[in-house]
Amino acid sequence: MGTAAGPGNLAGVRHILLVLSGKGGVGKSTISAELALALRHAGKKVGILDVDLCGPSIPRMLRAQGRAVHQCDGGWVPVFVDQEQSISLMSVGFLLENPDEAVVWRGPKKNALIKQFVSDVAWGQLDYLVVDTPPGTSDEHMATVDALRPYSPLGALVVTTPQAVSVGDVRRELTFCRKTGLQVLGVVENMSGFVCPHCAECTNVFSRGGGEELATLAGVPFLGSVPLDPELCGSLEEGRDFIRDFPKSSAFPALFSIAQKV
Ligand code: ADP
């Protein structure tokens, strides 16, 4: 487990899940947010650390945009996104005066903020900390892994869409995990088919099965396929809790089962 106990570090966090993807737009932030909601639904206390510094989308997805981060003796107090205070969130989005402002920082400044997010946030006791990372593999990923390494268990979830091009990007993510000694908890295939809400037939909008094939080839677990789901997309646009409000929709079973495997 973590190093010295204290309110402003991760010593009280039981599991850390890094969510990675080879490129943007595959649903990495969506999976991070929904995984947090599904874990909360299963009675867990969850934190989300949004280190996607140039595209922080979690505050918008969880309707926490514009909320303020306060300081306490232990550091920054994360924002609670729900009334029950079971999901806390820290994001660079809370530190910008204008949500549309771009983070135009050089690497060292970004890396310093990532270190601060890890050491100076008063997370308290959490069952899971879900870390939404930028797409690809960059200095920011190295800074994140280095800062989190003393805290364990630390594992990565790699999100891909089914197409070969996305799967190729994921191969690089898996190489990154191997080189940095990061345990891969598994691959999630997102946007794998569209389930018609009228007849329940599944149309494979892209190709199918790429994520599972890749996981098999790489010898890592395959955690599940999440279909394209208009209700999921809509709930994120409206900042609604998909897991609580849409249990009958097509993406629900996959998201729920992934949460049970991590
Ligand atoms: P990334 O973090 O990889 O850049 P996002 O999570 O921001 O990608 O997702 C990109 C867009 O796709 C968002 O508008 C999101 O609502 C939508 N999306 C992601 N996954 C699904 C899904 N399974 N069903 C429907 N819409 C999805």
Question: Can you walk through the features of this model?
Answer:
The structure is a single chain. This protein is an alpha/beta fold and 262 residues long. The protein has a single domain (13-261), classed as P-loop containing nucleotide triphosphate hydrolases (Rossmann fold, 3-Layer(aba) Sandwich), CATH 3.40.50.300. It contains 9 helices and 11 strands. The strands form 2 sheets. Strands 1, 2, 5, 6, 7, 8, 9, 10 and 11 form a 9-stranded mixed β-sheet that branches. A two-stranded antiparallel ribbon has the order 3-4. Strand 5 (79-80) and strand 6 (87-91) form a beta hairpin. Helix 5 (164-180) runs parallel beside helix 6. 47% of the residues are buried. The site of adenosine-5'-diphosphate has 18 residues, from helix 1, strand 9, strand 11 and helix 7.
Order of H and E elements: EHEHEEEEHEHEHEEHEHHH
The total number of structural domains is 1
Strand portion: 15-25%
CATH topology: Rossmann fold
Low-confidence stretches: 1-7
Total beta-strand segments: 11
Which radius of gyration do the C-alpha atoms yield?
17 Å
Write the layout of secondary structure elements.
Layout: E1 13-21, H1 28-41, E2 46-50, H2 58-61, E3 70-72, E4 75-77, E5 79-80, E6 87-91, H3 107-119, E7 126-132, H4 139-148, E8 154-160, H5 164-180, E9 183-195, E10 202-203, H6 210-218, E11 222-228, H7 230-238, H8 242-245, H9 252-261
Helix pairs in contact: 1-9, 3-4, 5-6
The chain binds adenosine-5'-diphosphate (ADP).
Keywords: 4Fe-4S, ATP-binding, Cytoplasm, Cytoskeleton, Iron, Iron-sulfur, Metal-binding, Nucleotide-binding, Nucleus
Binding site for [4Fe-4S] cluster: 196, 199
Subunit structure: Heterotetramer of 2 NUBP1 and 2 NUBP2 chains. Interacts with KIFC1. Interacts with NUBP1.
